[in-house]
């Protein structure tokens, strides 16, 4: 029998006035794994996480964390759950290192503060007051505070948002290490490569509901189909290309604009249809500067699932 989930959400509902921002959400976070929660702005990710932490009271449904109730059993859960919120929630007038040292003293078996401060580069701003830290520095300090107590469950809301590439790598290494040590991680992110790289399991939510879930591999592989990435010297008409491919081989063809003059074509790609893309381009005076065959990326899948309009 599989072990019980570290975090179990059933039928969670959260409304603000007329708006239902979390809409009968079911979500399991497997123990000892990294789960990435993805979704467009306003999808309800932070609200879901805040309900899990007991910071928001749900209007319906239930949340169990490590088998316990986040509000009733808050005291028992505190040392076992590490949380990094988007706004940090750190005291503005305290110095960075003092905050971390203070938080570490709340735990029975904290990590080595000096080691953690060094690997997340907190040393370089140890004596600076929290309110004077840059966004990325504050994020790193909040992350250190979330993990210093060796929690069983670590919840990170956009851990690498606003971080420079060096800091992001340090965060990724830390996440991998926590997982290797047996911790369970739930993180939200807008970085698709971060999710693809780190997560064992990806959950995509939109309009307060889960709309897809699986391993990154499951989500990006389309049985028997591939994706062709093309780049042209100028713009091209996706509808015309799609129609051409459909007339050649009726099926589920899609042509998406990625950005600039880059497009992806998905469908039953084979030598004939690949050649047909070239023929269509020649007939329409479109110069293709690159054409390559590959898998869909998590970003392709995300955009297909959640649409391309801004929220
Ligand atoms: N206190 C509040 N009162 C009213 N509406 C709220 C409140 N908090 C959040 N919302 C709304 O709930 C919706 C979901 O917000 P939430 O922060 O959970 O989204 P998110 O998926 O985390 O988005 P992002 O990726 O931008 O962080 C949004 O439309 C937001 O405006």
UniProtKB/TrEMBL annotation:
One GO-annotated biological process of the protein: response to antibiotic
InterPro entries: AAA+_ATPase, ABC_transporter-like_ATP-bd, ABC_transporter-like_CS, ABC_transporter_ATP-binding, P-loop_NTPase
Main location: membrane
Keyword entries, A-Z: Antibiotic resistance, ATP-binding, Cell membrane, Membrane, Nucleotide-binding, Translocase, Transport
Protein name (record): ABC-2 type transport system ATP-binding protein
Compartmental location: Cell membrane
Membrane topology: Peripheral membrane protein
Molecular function GO terms recorded: ATP binding; ATP hydrolysis activity
Coiled-coil annotated spans: none
Gene Ontology, cellular component aspect: plasma membrane
ABC transporter domain: residues covered: 7-232
